[in-house]
Structure formats: structure tokens, C-alpha cells
Amino acid sequence: MKGTFVDFDALFGHLGQHTVDGLSKGSIYALVALGYTLVYGVLRLINFAHSEVFMIGTFTVVGTWSVLGATDSPAIGTVILLLLAGLVAAAAASGATAVAVERIAYRRLRRMNAPPLIFLITAIGLSLVLSEAFGLWQGRLVKGMPTIVERSVLFTIGNTEVTNIQAITVVAALIMMFGLDTFINRTRYGRGVRAVAQNPDTAALMGVNKDRVIALIFLLGGLLAGAAALLYCLRYGNTRFNVGFVLGLKAFTAAVLGGIGNLRGALLGGLLLGIVEVYAATLTSSNWEDVAAFVVLVVVLLFRPTGLLGESLGRARA
Amino acid sequence: MLLEIDNLTLRYGRIEALHGISITVAEGEIVALIGANGAGKTTTMRAVSGLRPVATGSIKFAGEDITNLRADLRVIRGICQSPEGRGIFPGMTVLENLDMGAYTRRDTSAIASDLDRVFGLFPRLAERRKQAGGTLSGGEQQMLAVGRALMARPKLLLLDEPSMGLAPMVIQQIFEIITEINQQGTTILLVEQNAQQALSRAHRAYVLETGKIVQEGTGQDLLTDSRVRDAYLGVA
Predict the structure, then answer these.
(1) What confidence tens digit (pLDDT) does each residue in A132-168 have?
(2) Which of A194, A202, A317 sits opposite B83 (nearest CB)?
């Protein structure tokens, strides 16, 4: 059906294939979206600098692999070592960046009781400073990296081929999501986080150290962004000083789509957004994937302003 | 003295809300703060818990200065508050809300027995333990707020308007429980608009007017005081 604007055969002939690809793309959005949603759920702040937390993760992966002398398609033992080293280094760098951002920029503003707009402007400013700093330091061109994991078909269901990278991405994202959900809902620290989200003053009256909870959520968001950065590197094989801009915007969209402040919403929103993008790209051309993503967002918000799952972390804050 | 507030002033921006108030609470007492809306009762409570920074003056707890201590550390020292408006965590169950009261404690077995005690005082909460805090009625939320504060096993229990918005029968019940908690050994500082109940339950009381203490005395003295009767007890 070449020549028509919308190519249904391309999509429905390989629906499973595109769904799998959408899920793996969406998993990366979901992991970054969790960082936005955690911070928003507790502080009612959109931390636009989170995109740069992710960006720093990708550069850390590149740096770590280059220090360790990674080459294309190394032996399996080396692959595992490189993946682990990349994960640990990126999570540590992104986590540290996120905590530093909170400490240096936001904590002071909180102490001064600054109005919300000031936080937002600070966040955007920080985001620019960080990405431009990396532009100066690492150059403004696309930075490649060795192909650690060669793309190969892991298994086939019907006419749907699942590649190793897609499987790693989805499984890793689900494990981390499950871990975070358990942490927030089942542990004492998690209960402290929910308490601050639902009623910060009463949380303090119960003995919760608010500053520590806030540092903790920035750390968690940063760790997940670092993991997402590794998965991004596996999928795309390159990065750039402004890689965070579009990806951050998409992840933020995913968070809003699922219901910002809601952890499971971030997962749902991320996966859905990934699928919508891949479907749209297949139906028309990849030029339209961003359009489709934001159209879906607008339509969902028209009918459900609180997102698909609504707010949960700070449910009905008194 | 368990709590000594000395010449405390506190500002909201440029407006001074408390103009040098002094209050003491001895161990084992119920002390009531009464006064009209905006007199500074809740502000005083927030200062004692560390939610508002003070301008001048000092707060001492069990002999130690806590004027500038962080709010969460005051809970560890033994001060816990059931705040005005109840401050329930709406998305948490009754049980999780109560567990939040014991957030700073690690003595698991003592926590379990305190939970039993709270359920003994408020059987209603036991029935609803799995229900979300936000879905409880006003009276149940008030019980939850008091029960939660007890879960901290505080030396000093601060109760801000425990009778607010409740039906007369429930008010009676809450005050009976307050007396009972006190007899079990907890010192209580109580803020109330229901002056009749507060004064008849309290050992001592202070009357607050526009950020100043205008009268103090035993609960019985103030109950029979003509100025207090005219202003707060609605008897001519």
C-alpha cells in the first residue's frame, strides 16, 4: 500500500512486533517518568532538571565503557561485566546529580518559602546549565559508543521476533518498577515518603525528617534515570549533550498521561506512550511519532485531567 | 516542669502572632489553653512541636532547651501532637496511620501492646483498621488522630481542638478518654474552644486573647470566674 498516507498493512501485518518494540521504547520513558512523578508526588514540583540527570547517566555509561576499554561485541563474560559496571556507574552518577540538584538549588528555596514559579524557573535554568556545560565539555556532536550487545533475535512468537535488547529493557524496567513499588508501599522509609506526600506537617509531627525524605526521593529518581540511561545506550548506541531534552519531555508526558504523582501511572503512561509512538511511526512515518504522542496526551487530559490512573502518592492531600 | 514556654514571641511575616507568652506544664497534668479564634492557641501548639520558628523567647522540655530543635527530633524527645484539623493521611489505612505514630520507635513488642491499648480506647478504629483514613467520619478521624499521637508513647501529648466538628455525645466520649489517658500517666497540653469541657477536665488552664495570656488558674477557678464565664462559657 505504498503511496497512501496511512499504511494499515504495515501496522496490522506485524502488530505484535510493533507492540514489543513500543513496550521496550516505553520502558525507558517509564523509568525516567518515575523520577518526575516521585518528586512531583512529594513536593508538587516539576523537576525539569531531571532530563539532565538522565543525560549525565548516558555520558557516564560512555565514559565507563571507554575507561574499561570496551570494544564491539566482546565475550559474554565481558558483556556482563560492562553492563554491570555501566549500570552501577550511571546509577551512581545520576543519583548523585539528582541529590546535588536538590541540595544546591531546591533546598535553599524551600527554606525561603519561595513561590512555586521560582522553583520552576530554577529547574529550567539548572537544566540549561547542565546540558550546556556538557556541550562545552564533551562537544556538541553525537557521541558514539561501542556496541556491547549485538542485536539478535532471542525468541519468536508467531511472526513476532523479540530481540535480546528489547527483552533486557522490558525485564529490567519491570524489576525496578516492582522494587520501587514495594519500597514505597511496604517499608518504613516508604511509609515516610507517603506521609510527607500526603500531609507534610503531620509527617513532621510524627517524627519524619522531611529533608531526608526529599533527598531520598531525588536519589531514587536519579538511580532509576541512571538505569534508564544504560538501557538507552543499549538501544540507540549514542548520546549527545541535549539528549535529555526530548527524552525528558516524553518521560514527563508519560508521567502526566498515567497521572503525575502515581508510580504505577508512570509505568502505564511510559509503556503506552512508547506503543503509541511506534504505531504512529509505522502507520505514517517516524516524523509523526512525536505528534501522535502529544495528541494522545491532549486527548487523555481533555477527558481525564488527572491522567489515566489519577493521583496516588499524595492522594487527596489535606 | 516538663514543658516551660518562656516569654515566647512568634511572627507571621511582619505580623506578631504571639506577644511574649509564658506557659508551664508539670508532669502528670492536663493543662488547657482556651480562647477565641485567632487568639494564638494553634500557633502556640505549632511552636511547641517545631512547625513554626519562634522570634524570641524559649521553649524547654524536660529541662532541655528545644527552642530551635527540628520538629522530627522533638518527637524522639517525647512530644507528639494531634493537630488541628486532625491531619489524617488520607491514602493510608487506619492501621498505617497508627503505625505512623510509632514512626520513630523500634521497640516492636511495645508498639504492638500500644496498638492494643489504642484499639481498647477506640474499638471503632479496630473495626475499621483496613479502611483508608480519608474515608472515615469526622469523629472517627479524631479518634484516629488521638490514637496515632498515643502510638508515639509521648511524655507530652499535645491535643489541638480534639472536639472540633464532633457531635455532643462524641465530644463527651473524647474527653472521657483524654482523662483516662492522663490517668494512665501521660501529660497533656490541650487547646479547646469547648471551654466548659476543657476547664472541667484540666488541672490548670490559661486564657489566651490576641496573642497574650490574660488569665491563668486552676480549671475549677476559671470555670467559676465571672470574666471567663461571660466570654467563653456562654452563661450570662
Answers:
(1) 999 999 999 999 999 989 888 989 888 889 999 999 9
(2) A202
Q: Output the nine-digit C-alpha cell for A258.
A: 498515567
Give the angle A47-A83-A37 at the CA atoms, nearest 5°.
20
pLDDT tens-digit readout, B176-230: 989 999 999 999 999 998 898 899 999 999 999 999 999 999 999 999 988 888 8
Is the minimum CB–CB distance between A171 and chain B shorter than 8 Å? no
Alpha helices in B122-213 (DSSP H): 123-127, 138-150, 168-183, 195-201
pLDDT tens digit sequence for A117-134: 999 999 999 999 999 999
What are the sequence ranges of the domains in chain A?
8-303
Element (H, E) at A165: helix A164-186
Apex B166 CA angle, B164 and B171, nearest 5: 95
* Dihedral sign from CA coordinates of A26, A31, A32, A36: positive
Q: Is residue B134 included in any domain, yes or no?
A: yes
Q: pLDDT-derived band of residue A312, with 50, 70 and 90 as boundaries?
A: low
Q: Is residue B8 part of a domain?
A: no
- Check A191 against B100: CB less than 8 A apart: yes
- pLDDT tens digit string along B75-91? 999 999 999 999 999 99
pTM for the whole structure: 0.90
Inter-chain residue contact B148 with A206, CB threshold 8 Å? yes
Q: Is residue B215 part of a domain?
A: no
Total structural domains in chain B? 1
**Where does the pLDDT of residue A318 fall: very low under 50, low under 70, confident under 90, or very high at 90 and above?**
very low
Q: Residue B53: pLDDT above 50?
A: yes
The candidate with the shortest Cα–Cα distance to B159, out of B129, B221, B202, B222, is B202
Would you tell me which residues 189-218 of chain A have a C-beta closer than 8 angstroms to some C-beta of chain B? 191-192, 194-195, 198-199, 201-210
**What does R_g of chain B's alpha carbons equal in angstroms?**
17
Residue B12 belongs to a domain: no
What's the CA dihedral at A221, A226, A227, A230 to 10 degrees?
Answer: 160
When CB atoms are compared, the residue of A198, A207, A315 closest to B104 is A207
Residue of A nearest to B51 (CA): A201
3-state secondary structure of B65: strand
Spatial contact of A180 and A222, defined as CB atoms under 8 Å apart: no
**Residue B126 is part of which domain span?**
88-152
> Would you identify the CATH topology of the domain A8-303?
ABC transporter involved in vitamin B12 uptake, BtuC (1.10.3470)
